[in-house]
Specification:
Length: about 160
Amino acid sequence: MFRPIRRQKREIDTEIAKELLAKSRRGVLAVNGDGGYPYAMPVNYLYDEESGRIFFHGARAGHKFESIQRDDKVCFTVYGNDKYEEGDWAPYVQSTIVFGRCHLIENQDEAIELVTKLAKKYYPDESLIAEEVEKYGQAVQMFEISIEHLSGKMIHEK
């Protein structure tokens, strides 16, 4: 069902692709938007390799939510690990692309637990996390992407 990478010599090992997914700070979520147009937006996220899921927060209204409700198939992309080889003016860049199914997490206790883990990735201080979760935790909406396919590659940007 999922296409192999066309230029296979650019494919990176799955473990390296997962490492990039784990350490990147932002990814681009693409959904099937209004009128069949793709709708892609950057999101902060948390990758849980053990469960094979990606988590992010959002509202229970709006273009993203309505698109996911209509069609749960999504694509999620991260890129980075730029490196230069001697004499090159253009970097080599790795990317990871995930295809999966996305849904809202209905259990509010689980959502609060997940948003706390997500915040640990971004906040510099645990006390700030506790304040934010105390203040906004009951209103948080968390989504999960169950990964069906993951691949990675490296390109030379020239």
